[in-house]
Amino acid sequence: MYLIHALLRPSDHPVPDGFAAFVSDCAEPDDQLEHAGLHPDAEGGPVLGLFVTAPSMAAAEGTARALVERALKRHPALDESALVRCEVPFTPPFYEWLALLPDEGGRLMPGRFRPVETDDKPDPGREK
Predict the structure, then answer these.
(1) 25, 72, 82, 86 - which has most CB atoms within 10 Å?
(2) Residue pLDDT, tens place only, 54-69
(3) Contact between residue 86 and residue 61 where contact means Cβ atoms under 8 Å apart
């Protein structure tokens, strides 16, 4: 499941409080929308948060974009509003925390690509 943020630019009317429920009502079973929530006072403009189940981040973003565009066209007060951006949000606190982990140096996959420590003896399972 992916959290997708859809940044909206309303035309003449503010995004109504019930817009998240309206978007949920516009969802089709193939959209696999789990939950929608509206943040009307977000920095940069109203943001709709969508939890979408999908096989990849790109698929989730595409599904969310299509769903929000469908909902905007169907809503009588928002049919001329624009979808500015629709993507998984970048979460700086997570990456800041990751960079501070001891011994891992901010690696996204700790331990996976660490050089093998040797004692200068040949590896018995490895042929030269």
Answers:
(1) 72
(2) 999 999 999 999 999 9
(3) yes
The sign one gets for the Cα dihedral 80, 84, 88, 89 is negative
Q: What is the DSSP letter of 62?
A: H
- E strand or H helix at 91: none
User: Cα-flanking dihedrals φ and ψ of residue 36, to 5°?
Assistant: -135, 140
Picking from 45, 38, 51, 34, the residue whose alpha carbon sits closest to that of residue 10 is 45
Token pair belonging to 72: 């905007």
pTM: 0.70
pLDDT at 70: 96
Judged on CB neighbours under 10 Å (0-12, 13-18, 19+), 42 is middle
